[in-house]
Write a structure and sequence with these properties.
- It comes from [Collinsella] massiliensis.
- The protein has four domains: 7-121, no CATH class; 128-178, no CATH class; 187-349, Heat Shock Protein 90 (2-Layer Sandwich), CATH 3.30.565; 359-416, Arc Repressor Mutant, subunit A (Orthogonal Bundle).
- It is built from 14 helices and 19 strands.
- By secondary structure, it is an alpha+beta fold.
- The protein has helices at residues 17-26, 48-62, 111-121, 139-149, 156-161, 173-178, 210-225, 243-256, 288-293, 302-310, 320-326, 359-367, 376-380, 387-399; strands at 7-10, 30-34, 63-64, 69-74, 79-84, 93-94, 97-102, 105-108, 187-192, 199-205, 226-231, 234-239, 265-270, 273-279, 336-339, 343-349, 374-375, 403-406, 413-416.
- α8 (243-256) runs antiparallel to α11 and α12 crosses α14.
- It has a six-stranded mixed β-sheet with strand order 10-9-13-14-16-15, covered by helices on one side.
Length: 418
C-alpha cells in the first residue's frame, strides 16, 4: 500500500494534515492514517484515543466549513484512520486557503481551481454565469435550430427555452459560446503527412458560433478520411474512420471541456488515425473507470449538452464513449482513451475488418494488448491449444499488419496495433 491521491500516511499529528483534509473535502475524498511511516509501515501511536480527540479538535477549529469526516482506531496496529468525504459546500478552507491533491502531495489550488470550487459550492457552472458581453447575435445558431426542430421563428423565447437567456433578459456564457461572434477558444486542426514535420493542412476555427466551428471541423474530417467509389453506377461513401465515432468524439470534446481556460480543442489528423484532445480532465465526481464504461455521465456543461442533444448531434447524455466503441465493434482496431488531470484525448484509428479471421485467430487477437507487448508464454495461459499453433496464429496476424513484434528469438513479444 502506497500513498496516492486519496491516501496519506502520517507518523504523528502535525498541522500539515489539515491541508490534506481541505484537499480531500474539496475533491474526491480520502483517508489519512496516523501512526504509519512514509513506507506504509505501522509504527503505532502512544495514545490513539487521545489522538482522535486532538484530530477532531484541530479539524473543527481550523477547517471552514467543517467537512464530513469519521475517525476509526485500529487497536491491533495502534493507528488512527481519518476518512474525509468529498463535500458539496466547497471550498473547504484551511487558514483561508483551499488545497488539492497532486498524486501523493497536497498543494494549494490556483486561482482558476479556486473559482471552480466557489461555483461548485453554489451549485453553479461556468456556462451559467452572465456573459461579459450582452450584445450577442445568433444567426448561425438560429438557422441550425430552425432546421433541426422545424421552427418557424427563432427568437428570445427560443433562447429562453434553451436556457441561454434568463428571465430578466441576460445572456449567460453558454450563449456567448454559441453566438455569431465568440471570444471563447475554438478548435485547432492539423493534418499531418508521414511525420509531424509534414503539415498538409492547418486550420483554426475561432471567434464564431461553436456549432459553426464544429461543422467546419467535420468537413475537414470528411476530406481526410472519407471518399466515394462508384459501384454499378451508384456512388458509395467509404469511411476509413467511422464518421459517427469522430462526430461523437468531437461533440464530447467541445461540450464537456472546461471553458474557463484559454485552450483550444485540438484535432490532429494522421495517416493512420485521428486524435481529439479536450482541455480539462474529468469533472468532479467522475472517475476514469466510470467514464470508460460509458454508462454514467456527470455534466460539466449541461446547457451546452442540452443544445447539442436537442439538435441531435449527441443522442443521449452519458452515452458518448459507448457509442464511439460501438462504431468499432466490427473492426480489429479499437479507439484508445487517454485521461490526465488536465485533458482527455481520444485516438480513432483506421478501421480494419476481421478479414476472415477464424475463431482461434480472433481469440488470440483479443488477448493481445494494444499497450504492453506480450510473450508467447503469457498468451498461452489464455488459450487451450499448443504453443506451435499459437505461434503460427501470431505470425499470421503479423503478416496481416494488425500485430507487431519486438525482440528476437525467445525474447519476441507481440502487441496489437490499436
Amino acid at each position: 500500500m502506497r500513498e496516492g491521491k486519496t491516501l496519506e500516511f502520517k507518523s504523528a499529528v502535525t498541522a500539515s494534515f489539515l491541508k490534506t483534509v481541505s484537499a480531500f473535502a474539496n475533491y474526491d475524498g480520502g483517508s489519512i492514517v496516523f501512526g504509519v511511516n512514509d513506507a506504509g509501515e505501522p509504527i503505532g501511536l502512544e495514545d490513539p484515543v487521545r489522538t482522535c480527540l486532538d484530530i477532531e479538535n484541530r479539524i473543527n477549529d481550523s477547517i471552514s466549513p467543517i467537512p464530513d469526516y469519521s475517525l476509526v482506531v485500529h487497536e491491533a496496529s495502534k493507528t488512527v484512520e481519518l476518512s474525509v468525504k468529498s463535500g458539496l459546500a466547497t471550498p473547504y478552507l484551511y487558514r483561508a486557503k483551499a488545497y488539492k491533491r497532486a498524486d501523493s502531495a497536497t498543494v494549494e489550488v490556483d486561482r482558476t481551481d479556486f473559482t471552480r470550487l466557489v461555483l461548485a459550492g453554489n451549485n453553479l457552472n461556468f456556462e451559467q454565469l452572465p456573459a461579459a458581453k450582452q450584445n450577442l447575435k445568433f444567426s448561425y445558431l438560429g438557422s441550425v435550430v430552425q432546421k433541426a426542430l422545424g421552427l418557424e421563428y427563432f427568437n428570445e423565447d427560443t433562447l429562453k427555452t434553451l436556457n441561454l437567456l434568463s428571465a430578466d433578459g441576460a445572456y449567460n456564457n453558454a450563449a456567448a459560446i454559441l453566438a455569431d461572434e465568440s471570444d471563447f477558444p475554438g478548435i485547432d486542426v492539423a493534418r499531418f503527412g508521414e511525420s509531424v514535420s509534414v503539415i498538409l493542412k492547418r486550420a483554426t476555427y475561432e471567434g464564431a458560433c461553436l456549432l459553426d466551428e464544429f461543422d467546419k471541423t467535420i468537413e475537414l474530417f470528411k476530406d481526410a478520411y472519407c471518399y466515394e467509389v462508384v459501384r454499378d453506377v451508384q456512388r458509395e461513401l467509404i469511411e476509413t474512420i467511422p464518421m459517427r465515432a469522430f462526430r461523437e468524439a468531437l461533440a464530447n470534446a467541445v461540450v464537456h471541456r472546461t471553458w474557463d481556460i484559454a485552450a483550444r480543442v485540438r484535432v490532429s489528423m494522421y495517416p493512420d488515425r485521428v486524435e481529439i484532445s479536450s482541455p480539462g480532465g474529468l469533472p468532479a465526481g467522475m472517475f476514469e473507470e466510470t467514464y470508460l464504461s460509458g454508462m454514467v455521465s456527470v455534466m460539466r456543461n449541461p446547457i451546452l449538452a442540452n443544445v447539442f442533444y436537442r439538435l441531435d448531434i449527441i443522442e443521449a447524455f452519458g452515452t458518448g464513449v459507448r457509442r464511439i466503441k460501438e462504431a468499432y465493434e466490427q473492426s480489429l482496431t479499437k479507439p484508445m482513451f487517454t485521461i490526465t488531470e488536465h485533458a482527455i484525448s481520444v485516438a480513432l484509428p483506421l478501421v480494419k475488418s476481421d478479414i476472415g479471421l477464424t475463431d482461434d485467430q480472433r481469440r488470440v487477437y483479443d488477448l493481445l494488448s494494444a499497450v504492453r507487448p506480450m510473450a508467447v508464454g503469457e498468451l498461452l495461459e489464455g488459450v487451450d491449444f499448443s504453443r506451435s499453433k499459437l505461434t503460427k496464429i501470431l505470425q499470421h496476424l503479423v503478416s496481416l499488419g494488425v500485430v507487431e513484434t519486438s525482440g528476437v528469438a525467445r525474447g519476441t513479444k507481440y502487441r496489437r496495433l490499436a
